[in-house]
Amino acid sequence: MPATIETIDFNGQPALALATQAGSRAVVSLFGAQILSWIPAGSEERLYLSPAAVYDGSTPIRGGIPVCFPQFAGLGKLPKHGIVRTRPWVVGEQRTGDDYALVTLRFTETDETWAIWPQNFVAELTVVVEGERLDVELEVENTGHAPFAFTAALHTYLRVREVENARLEGLYGHEYRDSADHNRIRRDSGDMVVVEDETDRVYHDVKRPLLLRDSNRNLGINAEGFPDVVVWNPWEERCAALADLPANGFRHMLCVEAAAARQRIELDAGESWAGRQSLIAL
Predict the structure, then answer these.
(1) How far apart are CA 229 and CA 153, in angstroms?
(2) What local confidence, expressed as pLDDT, does residue 75 receive?
(3) Residue 240 per-residue DSSP state
(4) pLDDT tens per residue across span 193-240
(5) In the chain, how many domains are there?
(6) 76 SS3 class
(7) Kind of enzyme, top EC level (predicted)?
(8) Residue 100 pLDDT
(9) Which of 25, 104, 187, 267 could share a disulfide with 92, CB 3.0–4.6 Å?
(10) What is the average pLDDT across 149-165?
(11) Over the Cα atoms of the chain, what is R_g?
């Protein structure tokens, strides 16, 4: 059968279910334009979605790929991770081909967001599933009459079988800010990143693709437009303090996020910016 896009109910939230003829599937929630599931063709679930996640609209959904905009984390005066991940987006485009399915969700400023961040903007998230590949692109346009600046991220929660056995390659030699250790600046000197404790790092100016080795399966990770890579795992103590994560949740997730965190992106009136993260099941 050809690729399909269907409107579904996902734990009480409206969502779009994408499926291709080859068997790749994804679920995208209209709440926050958040990808909640991605199953590559011939494979299994590759995103971590917390079994304790809340879907009543009062809080962000824990897991998947949340959109952080116009602020990443607490790096500014706005709410943590910005203002769009807890608001409804609208469907802008749906398109299917012989071997792909594509949706674009759109968010434009509201009176509510203006009260928090007084800027005119349009944010669009485009999701494409194709074979063993997931492409996620965030585009931001300044529709106002004055410049503005922002930070952003695709806060990707990857599902791993056991985080202590996972290996992330490609960050050797890169400088990073270690948020788990008083924001100290360090340089990665290992061949791979191994998570054995709380990990919260922002790697700078990452231009090469990454490879996540997880038992007998691999995942290629590539970003365009996003200069930084965030690697995050809350580990046991912080995980226990998060009500929407099970006590052992940290063992089965690793966030590898495409981000613009160290330096703000500046847009003049009428300008736009786009950043993309591609995941490829290997």
Answers:
(1) 9
(2) 85
(3) H
(4) 999 999 999 999 999 999 999 999 999 999 999 999 999 999 999 999
(5) 1
(6) coil
(7) isomerase
(8) 98
(9) 104
(10) 98
(11) 18
Alpha carbon 211 to chain centroid distance? 17
Beta-ladder partners of 61: none
The Cα-based distances of 151 to 70, 200, 262, 265 in angstroms read: 5, 17, 8, 6
Token pair in block for residue 89? 């987006």
Tell me how far apart the alpha carbons of residues 254 and 282 are, in angstroms, rounded to a whole number. 17
Rounded CA-CA distance 151/26 in Å is 26
Dihedral sign of CA atoms 111, 115, 120, 124 in order: negative
The pLDDT tens digits of the residues spanning 20-30 come to 999 999 999 99
Closest by CA position to 35, among listed 27, 23, 45: 27
% pLDDT > 70, the chain: 100
* Contact between 129 and 18 (Cβ < 8 Å): yes
Q: Residue 158: which residues within 8 A CB-CB, separation 6 or more?
A: 46, 47, 48, 212, 219, 253, 254, 255, 256
Question: Range of 138's domain?
Answer: 4-281
CA dihedral sign, ordered 85, 88, 93, 99:
positive
Q: What is the CATH number of the domain that holds 259?
A: 2.70.98.10
pTM score of the predicted model: 0.97
Question: Would you name the residues annotated as active-site residues?
Answer: 155, 257
